[in-house]
């Protein structure tokens, strides 16, 4: 079931089956937390969500590109000013490069200020014969393999609200102060290209006379914990409901059941909504998802985030895009080249290879080019730090280096250099 009703609110998703919800051990504590969160101010404004929907409408029409990226899982102890700035800097550099390649503006959406909850393949983790609940993100429990840490604690929902507010506060302050004006971002990219001989091939892209990406950074996260999302779902000026936990929310591959609570929630809020599509999805399911979430075919409302894996993208995606087009849908199509390309390194670390990530992006653009549809952009797990979590790239992170700075709370992220390099390689694809 999809959880606790905030006082005074009638939420149509309550009572429907909700996948991937924690087994909160203390129902009274959860109820109290939801009531408290419901009385706190929203984290974002409905008008900001509307503005993002307008920006995404441009991407749906091929007049803009989208860069959505950030941590797999934000972590409470990693919300320092330096880390947030590094992420924003990385996103800004990537947006500048993509804009240069595509010749259109880039809409930048962070996986930021709310990306604290994780769906898991297994509800339980077993180590040395001991079984404990899986880590589900800092909003639910802790990563340490102890009974205490893994116990879902509703007090963490409060902390998620607090750290999300702090992150948004910094983002807004940076925007007011004019952090990283376009010419500075371009200078960082020139420095990136000049700093290694293998990167010099990217220099011509920076000489293209095209619009430079705007400094706006919107926030997004997976709308997974419906108790939290419900507490922050509030009416906008016209009375329509908005998920005011972030500007954009998405529904994951594991929670997009048509009769489930997450799809119902997504259908009720006015925000721009993303839906992840893995290789097992059928074209009929894609159409049904669009009918539920975007019955009015409102440009910018619906984003499909394809995460097929490099082996499947060229086989599976064409049928979906073709059918969607034939039925008159005009979603934004994004490529998430991370979630279908995860594997275990010999050391046991979960990792992803830069080449596989790039190849899935290439496959995604090939499919859209062949069909004459708009490839809207990319959705990536990345960080601004110099971590060693994904292998490959010109810097050549090897399997033997993974242990050096493996800091992710869940899945492996591209580091700063791999992220900017991926933007350049994608821009090369776009520039043809
Ligand atoms: O980020 C996505 C999922 O939460 C993650 O890939 C699940 O990982 P698991 O298969 O280790 O549970
Ligand atoms: C869980 C995620 O992805 P997916 O639903 O595609 O597996 C994610 O993007 O964090």
TrEMBL record:
Lineage: Bacteria, Bacillati, Actinomycetota, Actinomycetes, Kitasatosporales
Pathway(s) it belongs to: Metabolic intermediate biosynthesis; chorismate biosynthesis; chorismate from D-erythrose 4-phosphate and phosphoenolpyruvate: step 1/7
Chain residues that bind Mn(2+): 72, 339, 381, 411
Region Disordered, annotated ranges: 1-20
Segments crossing the lipid bilayer: none
Gene3D superfamilies, alphabetized: Aldolase class I
Keywords for the protein's UniProt record, in alphabetical order: Amino-acid biosynthesis, Aromatic amino acid biosynthesis, Cadmium, Cobalt, Manganese, Transferase
Protein's name in the database: Phospho-2-dehydro-3-deoxyheptonate aldolase
Positions with a binding annotation for phosphoenolpyruvate: 111, 253-254, 276, 307
Entry EC no(s): 2.5.1.54
């Amino acid at each position: 079931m999809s959880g606790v009703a905030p006082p005074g609110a009638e939420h149509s998703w309550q009572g429907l089956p909700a996948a991937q919800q924690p087994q909160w051990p203390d129902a009274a504590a959860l109820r109290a937390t939801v009531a408290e969160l419901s009385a706190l101010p929203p984290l974002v404004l409905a008008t900001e969500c509307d503005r993002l929907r307008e920006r995404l409408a441009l991407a749906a029409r091929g007049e803009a590109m989208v860069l959505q990226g950030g941590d797999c899982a934000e972590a409470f102890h990693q919300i320092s000013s330096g880390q947030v700035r590094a992420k924003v800097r990385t996103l800004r550099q990537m947006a500048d490069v993509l804009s240069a390649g595509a010749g259109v503006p880039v809409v930048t959406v962070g996986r930021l200020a709310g990306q604290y909850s994780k769906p898991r393949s297994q509800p339980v983790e077993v180590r040395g014969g001991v079984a404990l609940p899986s880590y589900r993100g800092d909003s639910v429990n802790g990563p340490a393999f102890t009974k205490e840490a893994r116990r879902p604690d509703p007090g963490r929902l409060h902390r998620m609200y607090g750290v999300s507010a702090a992150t948004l506060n910094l983002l807004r302050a940076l925007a007011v102060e004019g952090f990283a004006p376009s010419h500075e971002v371009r200078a960082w990219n020139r420095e990136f290209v000049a700093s290694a001989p293998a990167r010099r091939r990217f220099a011509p892209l920076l000489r293209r006379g095209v619009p430079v990406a705007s400094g706006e950074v919107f926030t997004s996260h997976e709308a997974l914990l419906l108790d939290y999302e419900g507490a922050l779902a509030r009416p906008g000026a016209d009375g329509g409901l908005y998920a005011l936990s972030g500007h954009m929310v998405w529904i994951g591959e594991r929670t997009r059941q048509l009769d489930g609570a997450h799809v119902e929630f997504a259908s009720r809020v006015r925000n721009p909504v993303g839906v992840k599509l893995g290789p097992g999805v059928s074209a009929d399911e894609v159409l049904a998802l669009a009918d539920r979430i975007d019955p009015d075919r409102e440009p910018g409302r619906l984003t499909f985030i394809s995460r097929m894996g490099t082996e499947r993208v060229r086989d599976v995606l064409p049928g979906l895009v073709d059918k969607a087009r034939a039925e008159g849908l005009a979603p934004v199509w994004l490529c998430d080249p991370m979630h279908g390309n995860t594997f275990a390194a010999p050391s046991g670390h979960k990792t992803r290879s830069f080449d596989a990530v790039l190849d899935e992006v290439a496959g995604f653009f090939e499919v859209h080019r062949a069909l004459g549809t708009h490839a809207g952009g990319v959705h990536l797990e990345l960080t601004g730090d110099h971590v060693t979590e994904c292998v490959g790239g010109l810097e050549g992170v090897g399997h033997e280096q993974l242990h050096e700075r493996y800091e992710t709370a869940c899945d492996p992220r591209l580091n700063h250099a791999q992220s900017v390099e991926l933007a350049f390689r994608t821009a090369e694809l776009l520039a043809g």
